[in-house]
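re: ur question from earlier - yeah i can do the single chain one, its not a big deal. heres the input i used so u can compare w yours
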Amino acid sequence: MDYKEVIEARYNREAWQKLLYDIFHNKVQFWRTPIPIKVNSRLAKEALSLGKISLSDGETIAVYEVELNDKVDIERNRRGIRDMLTSDWRNMGYAGAFVFGYRKDESVLRFSYVSETWGFNKQGEYEKVSTDTMRYTYLLGKGRGCRTAIDQFTTLKSSKQTLSDITAAFSVEALTKQFYGELFDWYLWAIAPATGISFPNNTSIEDDDREDIETKIIRMITRIMFVWFIKQKNLVPNRLFDPEYIHTILKDFDEKSTTNGNYYNAILQNLFFATLNRAIEDEEGNKRKFATASKRDIKTLYRYEELFTISEQQVIDMFAEVPFLNGGLFECLDKTKTIDGVEQAYNFDGFSRNDRTFADGRYRYRAVVPNALFFDEKRGLFSILNKYNFTVEENTPEEQQVALDPELLGKVFENLLGAYNPETKETARNQSGSFYTPREIVKYMVDESLIAYLGESDFNRSLFAPNFKYEAAHVEEYKSIAEKLKTVKVLDPACGSGAFPMGLLNRMAEVLQRIEPNTNVYEQKLAIIENCLYGSDIQSIAAQITKLRFFISLIVDCERDASKPNFGIPTLPNLETKFVAANSLIAKKKQDIQRNLFENPEIEPTKEELAKVRHEHFMAKSASAKRRLREKDQELRKKLAKLLADDNNFAPEDAIQLAVWNPYDQNAVSKFFDPEWMFGLSEHPFDIVIGNPPYIQLQNNGGELAKLYADCGYKTFARTGDIYCLFYERGQQLLKDGGHLCYITSNKWMRAGYGEKTRDFFAKSTNPQLLIDFAGVKIFESATVDTNILLFSKSANQHKTWCAVTNKQNKDSVKNLSVFVQQQGVECDFSSSDSWVILSPIEQSIKRKIEAVGTPLKDWDIQINYGIKTGFNDAFIINTEKREEILSNCQTDEERSHTAELIRPILRGRDIKRYGYEWADKYLIATFPSRHYDIEQYPAVKQYLLSFGKERLEQTGKTYTINGEKVKARKKTNNKWFETQDSINYWEDFNKPKIVWGEISDRSKFAYESIGTFVPEATTFLMAGKHLPYLLCILNSPMSEWFFSKVGTTTGVGTVRWKKFTIQELIIPIVSPVDEQFFEEQVQNYIDHSIDTQSFTSSVNKRIYSIVGLSDEEISFAENYYDTML
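and the output i got, formated as tokens:
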């Protein structure tokens, strides 16, 4: 059956019934006569039950047809439409429904799948997670692309046709992943030198035209995608992207050209900079036109008339149906001497009439993007974009249209940052530490932050509930809440591509619409943006994408009206002083913290005048008005900075830096962040600080970040720590007293050594109110890091933190965090820098019992050391065959004898099992520096090692060039070329009985090496000392395994790091001599194979439980704990 004929046509019941039958065959049953269903008359003229589909897993879904009322916008997401039939299919005992929503006189069809929230449990069964309804929708019909629907329905046809298969067929994730993949491939193609893309940058030189090309291309992509989104509102004509039409208006246009970029220059640049960024007619009467002045090259005027076959007026007319949007997104970033007054012109966008070229033919002043990059039939950007449906509305966890929504811009940004950087051998994403936050997490954190700000109460929480109903009796309370929401000040100090600011805007607008239903949505959003939301990011392109998403969110509430000025589309605000590119972690310190910043009587009027200028600029429309206000802004900044310096508020050099900062330079990144200076707010201005700060170890890249922030006065600073710890403290500094911070970060601060200062800061300087540990549940698709959410207030610690832990068993709880946290949460008291461990009541009981009879492992007269780090395993770790070869090369029996002693059997982490090991026939050339070996006494070993090249083995850290290839020596030490990397002063412990274990493992795997034969490798630890048989049993016990899961650090991929500093903190129950003798005998019997593994582990574990005094319930919990985690 040809699905396309049905999907791309006006809704036809009979045709769709045939399509469903083709997919489900005898599973679908249609009623002979459709059954009328009573529904809300405001939404629908008529609703009919058409039949049902009985799925292979025993679940059933209903099939409905709904003719919508004329006033209902079929393309907008509305909860009323989603829920109008819910009671009917629920009463029938069905799991969900297919709903065809249409109007007789329109071609568009909303085909939806509505269900309650389902997910997989630990048995792999698909079960109901929540009764909250979700709707997945395809917008189909005449003139709409249907590729995704056809692909998904075809897959559904060949599936088992269970409820989970239905959900997959309506999966937005599958669609967006496919799009990311295609776009990412295009991006890699575009940034390759062979494509010929170039931007002039410094116009006086020719060797920097590909400098920062990645950012330039990302900016171009985001501009194009913004245009693609607003095409959905009919604001830009489709013909501008149709090669057949372009052939009729451009000279020598060749869509396949890999050298000519006349399309980008003539069409896209003129669309971006001279159309979308210029009023059709501004307040001074100036209209869109071509640039004519020979010296003054206005950046909002059309150019490239020589590239067209049509007249200048025809070009102007061609763009005339495109409204002026403003907003700065399409502001040309070129810096010219005449307009900007700069000493050296920088053409970041390359929008120039000057056609001079370099010797190789490249334009000196113009950008070049070959036409093939857009129009190539298989790989071109437009070819990719044309395959997909776009929607201007951002999806929510409850409402998901199977189309690409504006959140995509954020994900694209995050995805493109992942491009591999050959210079650093890292991805750009890892360098910036940014990971895109899923919308379910954003929604939850936004809700909890706003509720905390409003005040925790059932009434305030009900405002955010999916089943909220307006009650006239609460009108005064609604007014009070609305006023408070309208005055909230929120900052995201690492806003990335705007996930949290957008989440806040949408959620605040939604709540305000609930309690003020008659207000204008556009005006409401505009007020929230201007008065409530602020952002900063270290990457300028990130701040620009955040602005872009805000623009789309405003446009979604506008409709084109040709009878009105600018087609009825309000001009977008200028957001330069709302979202800034700056280093949020560096503040400008005042000279005397006791003084008022605006103490000088001249300062206050200057500050007020600056605030007035920025308010006017927020809605300025014409280029001349913006230029005038920006010049005034710069004048006032300089004046204010001088007043501050004269008044000794800032050091003179800091005052100069304050004055130089230009909020309107979209290419610049400020080295400091000061909300008082940048936003005109008070010193500690924010009610809420929210976000997902970057995760970067401060010691990366030679410790550059550690050096940068070492003297900034952060209490949480640790050289081995992570940058997100500093963001916690900086966020707290920026809060008002009583304000709230909510971050999602790595959870390592809870237990890692470097997190000690951070834990102490939280305990003594904040009131931790909410902590959710996503232990083992992957939140960021592109990151192998375990995360948590922390919400604290800037107030005294009340020692009552509501906590919850997710795991692989309840991983779907992320989709409904609010319910999960309320049902599964426990209250904890965190009052010190000790590890923060979230424990349920039964876990708290087990921990108390262990602590009552035990003492930390470090006090048990033992020594824990690392295994051997060679610095070059390929040379120093050998197999049996290579060992025999070396020994056979020995010239005397004496040499062979002491060489055999030098080459020791080695155990790797992967070789070690619980209570035992499987040796992999690997040996170590054990030239420990502390043994002071003379390599000349081992000629066969020397000959073997030199085969790798002495330069490679040297411990100098240098890079050598040998036979044209670069060779990197081992890291710099004082050791000799033939020695291992570490000194190994504890080498004698290798010859003793010892416990060995791998650093990374999914379970406790401690082995007893009783003979002292093996040497542990770098991925292992060894423990020597007393009480080893007993310690072996206790460390391998389910009780200790559970305990360590709570205090140890995780890898982010389902394994635990069994590191020294956490192992030695484990509480070990003290035993009597009789008990210790029992464990010694049991271990020896196990070694002698006189007892089987099951009997051995059962007997020793039973004795351990008895020593600690665990109840049957506690024993069962400990022994089954890991099973529940899988």
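Confidence is low (pLDDT under 50) at residues 118-124, 420-427, 593-598. not sure if urs matches, ping me
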